[in-house]
Write a structure and sequence with these properties.
Strand content: 15-25%
Shape: globular
Number of strands: 34
Radius of gyration: 27 Å
Largest sheet: 8 strands, antiparallel
Structural class: alpha+beta
Strand order of the largest sheet: 5-6-7-8-19-16-13-12
Protein name: Isomerase
Pfam family, one: YgjK_N
GO molecular function: alpha,alpha-trehalase activity; isomerase activity
Organism: Klebsiella michiganensis
Helix content: 25-40%
Keywords: Isomerase
CATH superfamily of one domain: putative glycoside hydrolase family protein from bacillus halodurans
CATH architecture of one domain: Distorted Sandwich
CATH topology of one domain: Beta-galactosidase, Chain A, domain 5
Length: about 700
């Protein structure tokens, strides 16, 4: 009461709380503390709190006024004089949950260089922070500050990590307070004039914020067929996506959108391409400039042919960019990741931005970058050269020795040893004298798919594997194989899994389709013709090689030493069970109608995917299924949406609407006040993963904007 929780600070790449409450207002009348009753609610772009007592009414409205500064308007109605007192105290315990300490260690003990200091200024309070470079916890420059500035004079007292500020007013008053978190000296310098202007014209900034948010809603809420519940979720999705929008900072030179500002490992300005494609597709409809900027942020780090770190990966897009570069690039960040990229839906996203904006200059800007990305896949991830790229891993110190031998760790009992080389790996897996293997290239390949521990890439828990073997299966069914990809001079480029993935083949089908469409619009008919031919070739291959008629589903296929008589690299990997990759050909439009009908029958089977919350990331029949396993059971909204759109595309809209209804009814908190989650439990609807998750919000908005139109 009297303040908004936190604040939480984005310390370059992580969210860290500064206080439980900071700058909390207490009011005294005739020397006695006023006892208020409180109401609090949110509006798009604003937090509102009202405090009511006999003779005194206060309304507090908090909005962002700039990229780094929020503005609090405090309207006080009173017939007599009041004393206003603000107080705040920095957190001392290292970690806490719901206000209860989770650690006996203090922040100062854990980070002695943090050196948090409070100081009074002529119009407020400043908290300064020392330099901490703890790559997995806390990153500060030594110049960062949290500043409070007020529109009325106050008397401030500092007592260690605690402050109180007080002021006298004679009656009804409206006052304004700014809150700024500035991460380096340059931001401190630049924001000084901005704060001065905000406090000089606070009403202007509040009106501008309200108008900006009204603009998002007017642009984004255009579906007359949507129900009130569906529209409510769409508003929540717009708020979530805009709330995860971050200004340029550090190595990220464009505005970007992070997965979840409130998710510790998804916060700061960390940006993934897989998330970006989806976020931008949705935001094109209500915040198109930020949709463009998010895509530009990712492509700004596309590898050039003269790159000093990995010139062999020209056209490649890193899996994760962030405030701090990797040590290889001269930084000290641990999140920056060039071990893999993400699936090629970039052209799908870029094209949607064009479809909304009709900005042909946007296509001209992005087309050569998309072509370079497309070419990288075929050069660095197509081991057998048949035009169907595999998932894999880059040449990287995490994956291989300095001379290019693939690393892996063998575990047996309480012993483990790290070995290297594909021949050694093949010998170890053939002998089978181990309990488990850890293979960094396998992890990177699964990351590259966007489905981190999916069954199709050989991931299965030990108890699940034991049961699979007891039921007559073989451990080798879950052993993945690798190949080295080399250039014409024999130089190592990276690694491919020796399997062709049906989802990546389907995404590449779409990639070719959209590149052809762009080429046509840009007056490049020969290039358009070539991409259309590549798309048709992929569609034929997917339907010939990746569909299993007995189980009526699409699968990845193994790459054998020699192609099969029908031209396929190998047979479907049926034994690793069914996953959402099986409906990727439907979403992308590569499936035949007959195959699509079969796949949809599996999707609608309540013994497969038609669960309480439907279309999870592994079928109930999958040996590696677990309702709470990240990518082997949980329902992810992107895969759910891909499934519904695929069903609709092949004439099964009514059944898809039934699944959508089940999702809206059963995904806990979705249609009420709960945040939009990263994923949901397929059997119970429980919230799982990070809250306020961008790509979930993006696909929920797509449901509203596209799917729920009659």
């Amino acid at each position: 009461m009297g303040s908004f929780p936190g604040p939480a600070l984005l310390t370059e790449e992580y969210i860290n709380f500064m206080a439980t409450h900071f700058d909390r207002l207490t009011v005294y009348q005739n020397g006695k503390k006023v006892a208020f009753t409180m109401q609090a609610w949110s509006l798009p772009g604003a937090l509102v709190q009202t405090l009511s007592a006999p003779g005194v009414q206060i309304e507090m409205t908090l909005r962002f006024a700039s990229a780094h500064t929020s503005l609090l308007e405090t309207k006080i109605t009173s017939s007599g004089p009041l004393k206003l007192v603000w107080d705040g105290e920095l957190l001392e315990t290292l970690s806490a949950k719901e206000g209860k300490p989770q650690s006996t260690q203090t922040i100062d003990q854990a980070f002695p260089d943090y050196q948090r200091r409070l100081s009074a200024t002529h119009d407020g309070v400043t908290v300064s922070f020392g330099k901490v470079r703890s790559a997995s916890d806390l990153m500060t420059s030594g110049e960062s500050q949290y500043q409070i500035h007020r529109s009325l004079p106050t008397v401030t007292q500092i007592d260690g990590h605690r402050f109180t500020s007080s002021a006298q007013i004679n009656g009804s008053t409206t006052l304004y307070t700014t809150y700024s978190h500035l991460l380096n000296a340059e931001q401190v310098r630049l924001e000084k004039a901005q704060i001065r202007d905000i406090l000089a014209r606070p009403a202007h900034y509040l009106r501008a914020s309200e108008a900006r948010w009204n603009g998002y809603l007017q642009k984004g809420l255009t579906n007359p067929d949507a129900t009130a519940q569906q529209t409510r979720v769409a508003v929540k999705a717009i708020e979530t996506l805009n709330g995860n929008w971050r200004a340029p900072g550090g190595a990220v030179k464009h505005n970007t959108v992070t997965p979840s500002v409130t998710g510790r490992w998804f916060s700061g300005n960390q940006t993934w391409p897989w998330d970006t494609w989806k976020q931008a597709y949705a935001m094109a409809h209500f915040n198109p400039e930020i949709a463009k900027e998010n895509i530009r942020a990712v492509f700004s780090w596309q590898i050039a042919a003269d790159d000093k770190v990995r010139p062999q990966d020209a056209g490649f897009i890193p899996d994760l960019i962030a405030w701090n570069l990797s040590p290889e690039r001269g930084g000290d960040g641990s999140n920056w990741n060039e071990r893999n990229t993400k699936p090629s839906l970039a052209a799908w996203s870029v094209m949607e931005v064009y479809n909304v904006t009709k900005d042909k200059a946007w296509l001209a800007e992005m087309y050569p970058k998309l072509v370079a990305y497309h070419d990288w896949w075929l050069r660095n991830r197509d081991h057998n050269g048949n035009g169907v790229p595999e998932y894999g891993a880059t040449r990287d110190k995490a994956h291989n020795t300095a001379d290019g031998a693939m690393l892996f760790t063998v575990k047996k009992g309480d012993k483990e040893r790290t070995l290297s080389g594909l021949k050694t790996y093949e010998q170890v897996t053939a002998k089978g004298d181990y309990d488990s293997l850890e293979i960094p290239a396998q992890v990177a390949a699964s990351w590259e798919s966007g489905r981190d521990d999916a069954a199709v890439f050989g991931f299965i828990d030990k108890d699940q594997l034991d049961k699979y073997i007891a039921d007559g299966g073989k451990r080798s069914d879950w052993t993945v194989k690798f190949a080295e990809n080399r250039d014409k001079s024999g130089n190592l480029l990276g690694y491919s899994l020796l399997q062709e993935s049906v989802d990546q083949a389907s995404y590449m089908y779409s990639d070719n389709h959209y590149l052809a469409e762009m080429a046509t619009l840009l007056g490049k008919p020969e290039e358009a013709k070539r991409y259309r031919a590549l798309a048709q070739k992929l569609a034929d291959y997917i339907n010939t090689c990746m569909f299993d008629p007995q189980s009526k589903f699409y699968y990845d296929i193994r790459i054998e030493a020699q192609p099969l008589a029908n031209g396929c690299a190998g047979k479907p990997i049926v034994e690793r069970g069914k996953g959402p990759e099986g409906w990727s050909p439907l979403f992308n439009g590569a499936a035949t109608q007959a195959h699509a009908d079969d796949v949809i029958s599996v999707m609608l089977d309540n013994k497969e995917f038609n669960t309480f919350v439907p279309l999870g990331t592994a079928a109930l029949t999958n040996p590696a299924f677990g309702a709470d396993i990240y990518w082997r059971g949980r329902v992810w909204v992107d895969q759910f949406w891909f499934g519904l759109k695929g069903m609709e595309r092949y004439g099964h809209r009514e059944e898809a609407l039934q699944l959508a209804g089940a999702f809206f009814r059963h995904a806990r908190g979705l249609t009420s006040d709960g945040p939009i989650q990263e994923n949901y439990n397929p059997l119970t609807g429980a919230q799982q993963g990070a809250p306020n998750f961008s790509w979930s919000a993006a696909h929920l908005y797509m449901l509203y904007n596209e799917f729920f139109r009659k």
